[in-house]
Amino acid sequence: MANDIYKEEHRIFRETFKKFMEKEIVPYIEEWEEKGVVPKEVWYKSGKQGFICPWADEKYGGFNAGFEYSAIIAEELARAGASCFGLSAHGDIVAHYINDFGSEEQKSKWLPKCVSGHCITSIAMTEPNTGSDIQSIRTTALKDGDSYILNGQKIFITNGLNCDLAVVACKTDPKADPPHTGISVLLVEDGTPGFRHDRKLDKLGLRGQDTAELIFEDCRVPKSNILGEEGMAFVLMMKNLQQERLIITIGAQAGTEELLRSTIEYCKTRIVFGRPVSKYQHNTFKIVELATEVELGKTFLNTLIADHIAGKDIVKKVSMAKWWISEMANRVAYHCLQLHGGYGFMEEYPVARRYRDARSLTFIGGTTEIMKVIIGRMMGL
Q1: Helix (H) or strand (E) holding 323
Q2: CA–CA separation, 119 vs 91, rounded Å?
């Protein structure tokens, strides 16, 4: 990334995190891929080293770090091929809901554990029949004395098996018109009667990431666990989407840069018909095209990171970057696998896993099509 974003202290942090990954994460990625989950012990170790929620206030265990540190974590996880570790989803997306919109009581209760890795969070919005249409969710939370009675089903939930706290979008007023004004957010703790971590989903990619269904059956949640106020879900979500999509895009860009780097190295050393793969003009041109796309994405993304750090409203540009870079990542993955030939189809080569993992980028955090709808509306189209 650009030198004007990262300073010496950021370089030191990056090197420290990379050394931690080399010891505690990278050697175990294949094992996690097979098991479909990252052990909680890794979360505890990450928290102990200060790699979870570094932005959190010191009174909650963080060190008031800037967004640069979160970006570094997302970059290096993706660069190492460790996107299965849902560290950024927890630390830079879900935990921010508690920090930004929670009461002091809620923040004091959960943020220290979020920082230490002893409270893994997940955001439960998507349902089997709604997808990106959050207004159509069917999960309800109806008042009953000092509690809400929560009923519903959530799907495609990152950190769904490991989560100790679920941030759940639900309808507290099913008759609200327009519907989105009746949607609220509840904090639901693991172990609450009626809250069940259901089946682990068998996915095409990101296989080491525990993605699951969550079930709520007459789940009694204290009113004190509402985040913000009733009917505020859309306000909360809209305010956090800029950073959520930026984090996803940072990972997409960094992972693609590493995939292209390793592919170029392969093409320079793989000999076919007496000369390196990279020496065939067609392949040279293809690599140049891919490198150009990657560089364009990097340049655009650098400006967005700097603008986000400066506190600018860049929702439209982030939405542009999210769809374009995620689609670019898939184009690059396709051609990098092709340049590997038959070896690219073998799981022993990292390109195979990166190819599978890249496919998720065009729909997690909002599909390419939803990004274009958002951009179109902001353009007055």
Answers
A1: helix 315-340
A2: 10
Contacts of 361 (CB under 8 A, 6+ apart): 248, 252, 325, 326, 329, 330
The CATH number corresponding to 8-119 among 3.90.79.10, 1.10.540.10, 3.30.1490.190, 1.20.1560.10 equals: 1.10.540.10
Note if the pTM is more than 0.90: yes
User: Which of the four CATH numbers 1.20.140.10, 2.40.128.20, 3.40.50.1820, 3.40.630.30 does domain 234-378 have?
Assistant: 1.20.140.10
CB 233 within 8 A of CB 183: yes
Let me know: does 78 contact 252? Beta carbons within 8 Å: yes
Report the Cα–Cα distance between both ends of the chain, in Å, rounded. 33
Give the model confidence (pLDDT) of 28-40 as tens digits: 999 999 999 999 9
Give the model confidence (pLDDT) of 126-146 as tens digits.
999 887 778 889 999 999 999
User: What CA–CA distance (Å, rounded) separates 208 from 14?
Assistant: 23
Assigned superfamily of 122-231: Butyryl-CoA Dehydrogenase, subunit A, domain 2 (2.40.110.10)
Catalytic residues, which ones? 244
